Description:
Number of strands: 0
Strand content: under 5%
Structural class: mainly alpha
Radius of gyration: 20 Å
Helix content: 55-70%
Distance between the termini: 38 Å
Order of helices and strands: HHHHHHHHHHHHHH
Oligomer: single chain
Number of helices: 14
Amino acid sequence: MLVWLAQWLTENVDPGFNVFSYLTFRSILSILTALFLSLYLGPKLIRYLQQMQIGQTVRDDGPESHLSKSGTPTMGGLLILGAISVATLLWADLSNKYVLITLFVVAAFGVIGFIDDYRKVIRKDSKGLIAKWKYFWQSVTAILVACVLFFTREQAAETQLLIPFFKEVVPQLGLFYLVTTYFVIVGTSNAVNLTDGLDGLAIVPTIMLAAAFAIIAYVTGNVNFSAYLNIPFLPQASELVIVCTAIFGAGLGFLWFNTYPAQVFMGDVGSLALGATLGVIAVLVRQEIVLVIMGGVFVIETLSVILQVGSYKLRGERIFRMAPIHHHYELKGWPEPRVIVRFWIISLVLVLVGLATLKLR
């Protein structure tokens, strides 16, 4: 929005306003805008949630240490999504298709998560949005996004699959692109949702992935860097830097209130939307496999649930004391902060490995 204003001011008032056309400058402003919005609005939102008694319901079959969290304000993801949206609308080029699609995903999955939280917390329906309907609307959104991207593609590189560590192996997905895009968006959305079980556990890996994707989006949208790294040049990808830095800033601001012991939880409105957003960004910059590497913590959490449920149904035995796996370590006696920080460290290592794949090809 302000990009257009800056262009007009540059042409009609002062050439100095051209600084707002620089992607690096706007990315910094995006971080600061999202961060300060989160820090300013956070206490107000927390007080409102407390007044409305919109608090977390804690399962009685989980770790005993979690019982004290009952009543902690939830649906704090509204703060994150609001900050991301405002920062992106202010500093991104809104004529960019990739930016508009990403904002749509933020909004659509945010609505799905909001309805789920609303039913659980306000209407006191422990099931929330029934699982089949949640997946239905997630699927509808993901398929719609996949179809728009596939049928409006402008170059072959937009539907190629990049394989880490291999320069020449870039298969053309064709219609299978629709399938991979669907699973990446829906899968990442639910993976982040499953990970969001401890204070700050989900938001910090999200911040790390957003920072990494900002770098990837920048080099993918730069003709010189993309040629040097031997990755497809996608001109529109560069504007995703603004979205990624907005996620980074909003996530930092939310962490201020979500760090142990948390004053507010993000709820499904935050986790479902953030996961889907990371997924669609990975699709847009053609780094779905790198997403699996960098988001390894989310993958492990999801696999632990799948293995636990599968083992119990097939053998009548559980593999872990409790799933997702972060609860397993809690029940083994690890203090919550230790579980959180160690998962953060693992996430950082995986993000660095993912970034290294850009060069090691």
